[in-house]
Amino acid sequence: MKKIVLFLGSVLLLASCDVKDPIYNTPHPDHGMITLTTDWSQRGTGIDIPASYTVQAGDYSTTLGDATNRIDHLFEPGTYRTYIYNTPEQVSTSGTTATVAAASGNWDGVGAFVAASPGWLFTCAMDAVIEKDTDYELIATMQQQVRQLTLIIAPTGSTTDRIERIEGYLSGVAGTLDFSTGIHATPANVELQFAKITSGANAGKYAATVRLLGVAGEQQKLNAIIHFMGGNPKVMSLGSDLTTELAAFNADKTKPLTLGGKVVETPTGADFSATITDWTPGNGEDGEDGSAGMETNH
Fold first, then answer.
1. Cα–Cα distance between 198 and 53 in angstroms, integer?
2. Which of 183, 221, 268, 275, CA to CA, is 20 to 30 A from 94?
3. Where are the bilayer-spanning segments (predicted)?
């Protein structure tokens, strides 16, 4: 009997030695973890990398600051639609829709206005497929979503020295952007404050610069008024359809766009109107870099 007991004990000992503990690749065998690197190289000259940005992956959300971060969250296995974006000045975000702040315009009855100088918005939309017991290194290429537009007008004629100011607005600018689908929507207006250029090749011309999420709607139109000192002439109204010139504005947002137009003649009478035509990208100088002719009506 004693020999049988010892034999059974040996069998049990050998059996226990054959049972191995599971081997895992990570300390989180049932979940996945992400190390995220944001690539900010696709941005315009002189634009800073945002100090912070938001990461939204499924129901999880966090705010980060460094270019590379190990996200402090255990992800269940699955596919996560992931959105990464910053929140610049005068831009708000709800879900995947960015909205430019409203602004007051000096033009009654033409519709809503949006801020003329929102901050630089960057976004990224990507899918992250997560498996358990895995560490992931993801790279998010951030896309610049705000583009700079400059319009330069070159008045000519006998009354240019009496110009007091030029003011106007551009219609058909995007008030919202769904950065999940890339759809620009909610057409609005943006006010243009033209300032006289006092030095350089464009001295004597007038320029207005704005920042836009993009263009939206069927038409983009410049409407402006030239005011003269002493009210002589009283005013001159300017109008120009820029739909064709801005058709590709929503692409290549890292590149500022300048459109130059020349006023062929500044009328000396009152209540004149004018239409600027033949807009060309450039700085508005004569010749190859872009100028526009003007048709006058009264």
1. 39
2. 221
3. none
pLDDT value of residue 106: 78
Evaluate if residue 168 carries a pLDDT over 90: yes
Q: Look up the pTM and report it.
A: 0.86
| CATH code of 257's domain | 2.60.40
Residues 210-228 as b or e (16 or more Cβ within 10 Å = b) = bbbbbbbbeebebbbbbeb
Question: Two tokens at 171?
Answer: 């219609």
Q: How many CA atoms lie within 13 A of 243 on its CB side?
A: 7
The arithmetic mean of pLDDT across residues 234-252, rounded, is 91
Tally of CA atoms within 13 A in the half-sphere of 226 that contains its CB = 32
Question: Are 219 and 243 within 8 A, CB to CB?
Answer: yes
The range of the structural domain enclosing residue 174 comes to: 147-297
CATH assignment of the domain containing 133: 2.60.40.1120
What is each CA distance from 74 to 35, 81, 100, 139, in whole angstroms? Answer: 12, 16, 34, 18
7-42: per-residue pLDDT in tens? Answer: 434 444 444 445 566 888 999 999 999 999 999 999
Residues 72 and 163 in one domain: no
What is d(CA 207, CA 192) in angstroms, rounded to the nearest whole number? 9
Do residues 151 and 140 both lie within one domain? no
